[in-house]
Structure formats: structure tokens, C-alpha cells
Amino acid sequence: MEIGVSILNIPMLSLADEIEKLNKEAIDYFHLDVMDGHFVENMTFGPDIMKEIAKVADKPLDIHLMVDNPKFFIEKVLDIHPKYVTVHYEAFKTDKAVFDVLEKLRSAGILPGLAVNPTTPAEKIKPFLSEVDVLLQMTVQPGFGGQSFIEDTLDNINQFASWRQQYQYDYVIEVDGGINDETGKLCVENGVDILVLGSYLVCAPNREQALEKVRGVQRK
Ligand code: DX5
Ligand code: ZN
Q1: What does UniProt give as the signal peptide span (predicted)?
Q2: Strand, helix or coil at 185?
Q3: How many alpha carbons lie under 13 Å from residue 43 in its C-beta half-sphere?
Q4: Residue 220 domain flag
Q5: Domain count, the chain
Q6: Residue 14 CA neighbour count, 13 Å, CB half
Q7: CA-to-CA distance for 123 and 160, rounded, in angstroms?
Q8: Ligand nearest to the CA of 183
Q9: What angle do CA 132, 28, 108 make, to 5 degrees?
């Protein structure tokens, strides 16, 4: 199991210092939540800040685009070489538009991801499974950190894990929102590979201990 840290709940003005600290922790990715104020009712940062983050971050970047126009952002982050860029299924009007963006990412050398809102049925995502490297199941409504894990999302997670086995796909399953040691354990037991930790880790009095608790869980 791997861990990404969402920097959403870190005050923007202390970002550089906090990233330096997190570089030393046992995490695998920096998870960057990009929000445009349209796709979700919140705004975070854009390409310029991500470029600054890339200069100080020692871990690969996992960019989560909660935006109406993913193409615009993708063009602008190519030169910081993120490992994953994930776009939301719900941001597109047609399946073809989803395929086009996934292909664009792959041809740029970025592993493409598709993110799924808690209320989106897994069935809608089935056509794209062979084209994605990461499937990001949102476990809260996207937009804000610090919300509670929605347990019903385990149905989608189970479905994605079972299709992966049935059709021999090789995507990883990532979860994002309300993840802590308990909800993280549930997810890993149901087939999840990457846990995104936001407020649980960033606001923990002892980050090392919080990470140890999460790392202690094993898949059944
Ligand atoms: C929500 C974001 C998440 C989230 C994680 O829209 O994508 O990355 O902020 O934060 P917590 O773990 O606090 O829910
Ligand atoms: Zn996220």
C-alpha cells in the first residue's frame, strides 16, 4: 500500500516549510488538489504554484484535477513531469472526450487517472478501465478537506477490485477523502492500493505516529 499526502489543509503561506518536513516522512506522493471554483465550490492553486511545489517536493506528484477544463491544466503541467494526473469522469460531456484526455496524458508520458465521485455508479466507469493507470474513488464529495468518509463508496471500490481481477487490468485503486487509520484499513481490506491522507496526517500532533498507524494495516 502507498500513501499520498494532500496538501489542501496546509496554510498556503507555510507550504514550502511543510513540504520540506513532509519530504522526510514515509509518504510516497504529494497529492495536489486543483479546484477551479466551477467543478467544485472551492478554489485552490493552479500551474504556477504547482511549479513552485515541484521545485521543493522530493516525492512524485499525483495531480487531482477537480476542474471543468482539464485540458487547459494538463498543457501547463507537462514540464513538471507529474507521475499521475487524474481527471474527473463527471467533468466531461462525452465518453470520447474522456478517452481523448486519457490518451493525451499517456502520450505525454504521464500515467492517466480517472476520478469518480461518491454518487457515480462504477458501471459508468467500466468503458475506461483498460485505459487508466489509476482509478481514484472519491470517498467524500470533492471540494473540501476534513469531511467524513462515505462508507457506501466501498461498493464501487469492491466492484473496481473485482473487475481488475476478472479482466486482468493493472490499474491501481486510490481513495481520497476522510481517510484515517480506520477508514484506510477498510479501504485496503477491500482492494485499495493508494491512500490519500489529508487532515488526518497534516493536522496530526505526531505525523510519524499517524503514518505508522496507517501503515500497520494489511490487505485481507
Ligand atoms: C477533496 C480532496 C481531498 C481531500 C483530502 O476534494 O480531493 O484530497 O481534501 O482531505 P481529507 O483527508 O481531510 O478529507
Ligand atoms: Zn484529492
Answers
A1: none
A2: helix
A3: 6
A4: no
A5: 1
A6: 7
A7: 9
A8: 1
A9: 40
Residue in the structure block whose three cell numbers are 510519524: 208
Q: Which amino acid is at 72?
A: F
| Within a domain: 57 | yes
**Structural domain contains residue 183:** yes
Residues of the chain with pLDDT under 70: 217-220
Do strands 84-88 and 111-116 pair parallel, antiparallel, or not at all (unpaired)?
parallel
* 163-205: pLDDT as tens digits: 999 999 999 999 999 999 999 999 999 999 999 999 999 999 9
What lies within 8 Å, CB to CB, of 56 at 6+ separation is 16, 19, 20, 23
CATH code: domain of residue 91: 3.20.20.70
Contact at 8 Å (CB) between 217 and 185?
yes
Asked whether 146 lines ligand 1 (CB < 6 A), one says: yes
152 catalytic? Reply is: no
- Do 29 and 194 meet the contact criterion of CB atoms below 8 Å apart? yes
Residue 198 lies in domain: 2-215
pTM (predicted TM-score): 0.97
Find out whether the beta carbon of 142 lies less than 6 Å from any atom of ligand 1.
yes
DSSP track, 50-70: HHHHHHH--S-EEEEEESS-H
Taking the CA of residue 40 as reference, the ligand 1 atom at the shortest distance is 6
ipTM for the predicted complex:
0.98
Q: Residue 165 falls within a domain, yes or no?
A: yes
In whole angstroms, how large is the CA radius of gyration of the chain? 16
Which amino acid type is present at position 147? Q
Q: What is the pLDDT of residues 87-107, one digit of tens each?
A: 999 999 999 999 999 999 999
